[in-house]
Amino acid sequence: MSVFLPEPLPGTTAIQAALGFVLLTFVPGLLILRVIRDRFRPIDMLYAVALSVAFSMFVAWLANAVYMQFQIISKPFNGTTLVWIYVSVIGALTVSAWYLTRNQSPVDEICRVFSYVYEYNIKVVLLLFTLPVFGISGALFINRVGENSIALSVLAACAVLPLLVLQFDGKRRYLGLSILVISFALVLQRALLATHLAFGDGMAEYSIAQNILSTGYWVPTGTIGAMVRIGPMQAAYKLVMDIPLLRVFKIAHPVVFAFTPVIGYLLSVRYFSKEVAFLGGVLYVFLPETYRLLPRNTRTGAAIFFTAILVAIVLDSGIQKRYRNFLALAFFWALITSHYGIGPLVLLLIIPAYVCYRILRYFGGEPQPMAEFTGLTLYVVLTFGWYAYITRDTFSFVGSVLIGRALSFLTPTTNTAATNAISFDMPSLSFKVFFYSHLIIAALTCLTIGVLSLVYLLRVLSIEHQVITRIEDIIADDASGVVQNGAYLSIVLGLAVLFPLSFGPNVLSSARTFGLLMVFLGPFAIFAVCLPKLSRGRFVPAGVLLMILMLLSSGFVAATVTHDASRVPNFDRDRIIQSGDPIEQFALYRVYTPESGLFASSFIAEYIPDEGTVYKSKLGAYSTELKAPDETDPNIQSIKDPEDLDEEYTYITQADTTSGTITTGFNGFVYYEYFDLPKLTTKNKVYTNGLSKVYR
């Protein structure tokens, strides 16, 4: 089974794929919002995207439930059954939307939808959208010919673009659009640069969707296997778009996730100045965990996307209450059926946010849009019902992590994404900047949240003082909306509770905490940097710091100047393989060996005798998801002695063969316990991919 990206789609197939993607990702939400809203705003377009995805998830889940319970329809994920279901349901939705809004003038409706587009200069728009095109091209050039100059140029352009926009966009028209194109460029380039799904649970998610397509129906089991976003939705995208399943993971999901920072910007701009909200959105995109991990993790990425939309809806006073409740419920259902960990985690953050809101109201805060007690109760019941009866051990998993972190809060473990590179002496500027920047960002964010919350509370209590007046004058230009909205501050305070988990176990650390929080809290960190009003260009220092963060943490500097270990060494992998020092090579192989591991696993699964034994090194990878449904798992054992190499099949990873040794142990970035690689002249080499070999 090949997991590399296939050749480009033929023209007719590409058109069908594009139409299917529009059908699943845009049309249903636009039709529903046309009934709900009498006019469109920029954020309504993102509501439409999220509502379309949630709607598509629901249709796939409902069709499967009808088949499983009553079997009055064909297997939904066989043939064209689901395709016809989608076409029929969306057709009925189109007719209903037309009937309900038939008295509205179509011309006026079209003008309302595209009224914001008219404000743009088409030449500037086309220039901006060349960035994602070059981002995709950069990944393809690295994978096909080993040329990285285009990809590195895209990183540099993304780093500089925010400064250029702030300098030349005097009317601030292109801020949200700039965030979108940067997000598209970085997310798609990183998603396509890794030609496999072996990181994290990528292969597990792939196998779940593949199994649904093979059997024709979905049986929700376990935790990952019970998420609608993981199995039925991926299968639905594959069937409706008629593209390889791998393309769904590598293209369809990243495109949807790329809208997340724009949602954060349009939410933040309600309370901050456009400049602070813009740089806050850019900060979120520039965090390596955003574009390095989340685009390929459909569970976490989708859950964060729906969380951002949920918060935006809950705080949106521009939608009638009944419609706001409907949309919030739809997005909350999509959230809890996307990730079994983030779902209850978000619920636990909403509860302290609600408590803060009630306390502020008690002291005299003005009423604003916020989840009511009945809505909160519905969220609790929905979460408990889904996770308790559909998934396995979700509450015990989340509870054990939270309780364990609380008990060991004063003694942070070194096994965390926020501390392991500092604890292990990693001689890499990129790693140090990455982790220390997280510490600084968290500190600045919490400090700003504390100060603004205090100002709001003193204002509610009608406490006046010269210092308070001075602070209010300072923040008036850039954050006046924050200290006037208790609901927004309450949600921010509830979210900030999660920050300590970034220094806890890896399972709930950097990717999930910063990936979930900074889409909302990014402007608070930027506001702290921009607070000194030394000149009219006070946003330039923040933009410069973001540019430095991007160039260092993205791997640009490591690939062009320092040539040290990088968080994203794939940009420079050919040089590292050929002439990099051992530290660079080990950093590369941690993210690169799965690529060859999948090929080796495919070969072994095809040729190994039933119940045979596979010997692998400590860093070796064997992906059991690649076996055929009727095959049994081989016996997997680790190489402990050179004599083991004489047994059965042996998969030797690239990291082992670089120095002619086999690494049998490692701790963080410190590798040890190696022995010489014997001459295998008597063996028959049956597979090779670069330096990775399988022997029989």
Automatic annotation (TrEMBL):
The chain crosses the membrane at residues 14-33, 45-63, 83-101, 122-142, 148-167, 174-193, 251-269, 300-319, 326-351, 371-390, 402-422, 434-458, 479-501, 513-532, 539-561. Signal peptide: none annotated. Keywords: Membrane, Transmembrane, Transmembrane helix. It comes from the Archaea. The keyword Transport does not apply. This is Uncharacterized protein. The lineage of its organism: Archaea, Methanobacteriati, Methanobacteriota, Stenosarchaea group, Halobacteria.
